[in-house]
Amino acid sequence: MQINSKLPNIGTSIFSVMSGLAKEYNAINLSQGFPDFNCNPHLLELAKKHMDANFNQYAPMPGVQPLREVISELLQNCYGAIYHPETEITVTAGATQAIYTSIATFVNKGDEVIVFEPAYDCYIPSIEVNGGVVKPITLEYPNFTINWTTVKNTISDKTKLIIINTPHNPSGTTLTEHDLIALEKLVVGKNIIVVSDEVYEHMVFDGKLHQSVVRFKSLAAQSIIVSSFGKTIHATGWKIGYVAAPKELMVEFRKVHQFLVFCVNHPFQLALADYLKDESTYKGLHQFYQAKRDYFRKLISTSRFTLEPCTGTYFQLVNYKTISVEKDTDFAIRLTKEKGLAAIPLSVFYSNQQQQHLLRFCFAKKEETLERAAEIICKL
Ligand code: PMP
Ligand code: GLN
Fold first, then answer.
1. How many domains does one find in the chain?
2. β-bridge partners, 227
């Protein structure tokens, strides 16, 4: 049979590759981003409660009402924005489905989509599968900042979407208010939709505010906000996320959403709705992860790696230029196989695989895991 691949240049995701290798070589896994500690037992009790109460059939297509209400409250509490649960919020099967659905909904064949690289791995394939044309812009090292003049010059009549991500995976940096104002100036009045991936919204450090698109009224009016509860509740395997967008955009989003998944896991949505009524479940998260960031950075401060700035997410970038001149993919594989520590190489997030000698470590781990990892790191 002749298969005409829609993604001829795409292999298996780096997250599967590195986690698989970590397992095979029994290495400490700081590669794929997930906690190695369990979520709150209360959340598990709530899920069981709803399963026992027989909420085991299909949920409503846009998500259960109590969870959409809680999301609406969250957006108001955190950012002062009003999104109506009925018409402007949809619960998704994680952020991955939310991003794919947003792209599938709005990108027509030949439409251009601006993405910033290093780019989280699902953006580009989702654009390509849907016939879009990727316009990559490189973030400027070392702070992975956006050059807004370049963005201005890249926007054309064909630009349909711009995908932004703050706090940013894989770099661990965050956009500033100035960035969002610059973006707003560039897109308002144009037929461009912004997809804002904010899955690490509650992990911004050092007293800074998360610059959600929803804080900027004119920008929000043409934006789709994507988030995921996986990070917030320490349960990435629950795969529940959400989108918030103005009604006109949401009407179209739901047309596609209903045929991609129809709806999302019912009892777990109800458990989340109960759990997230208590604001402290998400409002203290930045302190929790800032403490982990600080601990990890201190543990590896005497190593030969250079620590890059980390202002958000649960990822720490390190530069290994003084240790090896190997390609980052080779170095990451050797580190896993020979030294027992798995990390993510950064070049895979660039279309041109550019080499910066950077690795990404996930610090969403127990102290003892970070200590064992640091022991290896400091010996290199
Ligand atoms: N966007 C970014 C930036 C991510 O890091 C992730 C995964 N952690 C996702 C989207 C996908 O989230 P989910 O697991 O909820 O699909
Ligand atoms: N977002 C997670 C990370 O960046 C991985 C999610 C996945 O495995 N697809 O590591």
1. 2
2. 242
Please give the residue range of the domain that contains residue 311: 14-32+284-377
For the CA of 169, the nearest ligand:
1
Q: If you measure from the C-alpha of residue 248 to the centroid of ligand 1, how many angstroms do you get, rounded to a whole number?
A: 25
Q: Are residues 63 and 20 in the same domain?
A: no
Coil/strand/helix, residue 13: coil
Probe ligand 1: pick from 139, 199, 348, max atoms within 8 Å of CB? 199
Question: Do 200 and 347 fall into the same domain?
Answer: no
Q: What are 172's two structure tokens?
A: 């661990």
CATH number at residue 349: 3.90.1150.10
- Domain identity same for 45 and 132: yes
CA of 33 to the centre of ligand 2 (A): 5
Q: Are 179 and 55 within one domain?
A: yes
CATH code for the domain in which residue 247 is found: 3.40.640.10
> Which atom in ligand 1 lies closest to the alpha carbon of residue 120?
3
Per-residue pLDDT of the chain (380 residues; tens, 9 = 90+): 999 999 999 999 999 999 999 999 999 999 999 999 999 999 999 999 999 999 999 999 999 999 999 999 999 999 999 999 999 999 999 999 999 999 999 999 999 999 999 999 999 999 999 999 999 999 999 999 999 999 999 999 999 999 999 999 999 999 999 999 999 999 999 999 999 999 999 999 999 999 999 999 999 999 999 999 999 999 999 999 999 999 999 999 999 999 999 999 999 999 999 999 999 999 999 999 999 999 999 999 999 999 999 999 999 999 999 999 999 999 999 999 999 999 999 999 999 999 999 999 999 999 999 999 999 999 99
* C-alpha distances in Å from residue 216, one per residue of 114, 127, 225: 20, 26, 12
Ligand 1 cavity residues, CB under 6 Å: 33, 94-96, 120, 165, 169, 197, 199, 228, 230, 236, 239, 241
Are 263 and 289 in a shared domain?
A: no
Cα–ligand 1 centroid distance for 164 (angstroms): 13
The verdict on 213 and 266 lying in the same domain is yes
CB 27, CB 342: distance < 8 Å: yes
Claim to verify: residue 53 and residue 134 sit in the same structural domain: yes
Alpha carbon distance 49, 120 (integer Å)? 35
Q: What is the dihedral of CA 79, 177, 118, 171, to 10 degrees?
A: -80
